[in-house]
Write a structure and sequence with these properties.
- The protein has helices at 2-20, 25-47, 57-80, 83-90, 93-104, 111-128, 137-159, 165-185, 193-219, 222-225, 231-244, 250-294.
- It is an all-alpha fold and 299 residues long.
- The longest helix has 45 residues, at 250-294.
- 39% of the residues are buried.
C-alpha cells in the first residue's frame, strides 16, 4: 500500500509536469487512456475478447462515464492546485461512497458512521475555508473527483453481483477511450517527444500503482490497509515542495487529518458490520442444516 501511494503520488506530479508544458487537460486524459490501453493489451490478449460479453452494457457505460468524469476532474485539480491540497480533498471519497451506498445499495448507517461523515465534511471545510478564502472551480474540482470516484465504485459493487472482474476492467478501459477522444479533438495540439514520453510514463505508473493498490486490498481488510493511504499526502507534499515549490499551509494538514480520521473510522465500522453480517449468515446456514438433518428420514 505504501508503494502504491508513492507510485500514484509520482503519477500526480507527472500529470502536473505535463500540464505545465501547456498540453490541454482533455488531451492529457485521452493520451493517458491510450497509454493505459497499451499496457493493458498483453493482458487482454491473454484472456481474449470472450470475457467482454455482457448483457448490462448500459451499466458498464455509466460506470465508464463516471470514471472518465473522475479522471478529468482529478487531472484538472492536480494541474491547478498544490498536490497536497488535491490529495487531501480527494480523501473525502469514502465519505461520499457511504452516502451513495445508503441511497443506492440501501445500506443502513448507524449514528457512529453518520457522525464520522459529518466530521469528514468539517475537515473538507477546514481546507476549503468558505467565506475566508477565495473559492473557485479549482478547489471544488477535487471534490467533484471524489464524488464521481465514489459513484464509480458504487457501480462496480452493483456490477460485481453479476459480472466478472475481467469484464469490468476490460470494458471500462475500452469504453473510456472514445469518451476521452471526443473533447480532446477540440483542443488538440501536436505533442512533443518529451510530452509523449511523459504520458507513457503516466500510463505505466497508473498501471503499476493500481495493481499494487488492488493487491494491498486483496491481502488484508480495508480497515487494516486504508490507514496507510495517508502516505499519499506525505509523498504528494514532498513532490510538490521539491519539484514545484508548493508549500501547503497548516490548515490543509489539519483538514486532511480530520477527513482521514473519519474515513478510517467509517472503514473500520464497515468492516465490523460486514463481519457481523457474515457470522449471522453462517449461523443461519448452520441452523438450517441442523433442522434439515433432524427432520430427515430415520433408519
Amino acid at each position: 500500500m505504501v508503494f502504491a501511494c508513492f507510485i500514484l503520488s509520482v503519477m500526480a506530479g507527472e500529470i502536473r509536469f505535463v500540464a505545465d508544458t501547456g498540453m490541454p487537460i482533455f488531451q492529457i486524459v485521452f493520451l493517458r487512456n491510450v497509454a493505459g490501453l497499451l499496457f493493458f493489451l498483453p493482458w487482454l490478449a491473454q484472456v481474449g475478447f470472450g470475457g467482454l460479453k455482457t448483457e448490462r452494457i448500459g451499466a458498464f457505460g455509466l460506470r465508464s462515464l463516471l470514471g472518465f468524469a473522475s479522471m478529468l476532474s482529478w487531472f484538472y485539480a492536480v494541474s491547478v492546485l498544490p498536490l497536497a491540497d488535491a490529495v487531501a480533498l480527494n480523501f473525502t471519497a469514502p465519505i461520499f461512497g457511504t452516502i451513495l451506498a445508503i441511497i443506492f445499495l440501501k445500506e443502513v448507517v448507524g449514528i457512529r458512521r453518520g457522525t464520522a461523515m459529518v466530521v469528514g465534511f468539517l475537515g473538507a471545510m477546514i481546507i476549503l475555508r468558505p467565506g475566508f478564502s477565495d473559492l473557485s472551480i479549482d478547489a471544488y474540482s477535487a471534490i467533484v473527483s471524489a464524488i464521481t470516484m465514489a459513484s464509480s465504485m458504487i457501480m462496480v459493487k452493483l456490477l460485481s453481483r453479476t459480472e466478472s472482474i475481467t469484464a469490468m476492467v476490460a470494458l471500462n478501459q475500452l469504453l473510456v477511450l472514445p469518451m476521452s477522444l471526443i473533447p480532446a479533438l477540440f483542443v488538440w495540439e501536436t505533442p512533443t517527444i518529451e510530452q509523449l514520453l511523459a504520458i507513457l510514463f503516466i500510463g505505466f505508473l497508473a498501471t503499476v500503482g493500481h495493481l499494487a493498490f488492488t493487491k494491498a486490498y486483496s491481502l488484508a481488510d480495508a480497515s487494516v490497509v486504508m490507514p496507510f493511504d495517508f502516505f499519499r499526502l506525505i509523498f504528494s507534499a514532498l513532490i510538490g515542495f521539491i519539484f514545484f515549490m508548493q508549500e501547503p499551509d497548516l490548515l490543509t494538514y489539519v483538514g486532511a487529518a480530520v477527513i482521514f480520521a473519519s474515513s478510517i473510522y467509517i472503514a473500520i465500522r464497515e468492516s465490523r458490520v460486514s463481519a457481523a453480517q457474515a457470522r449471522e449468515k453462517e449461523k443461519e446456514v448452520l441452523a438450517q442444516t441442523a433442522a434439515e438433518t433432524r427432520s430427515g428420514p430415520t433408519r
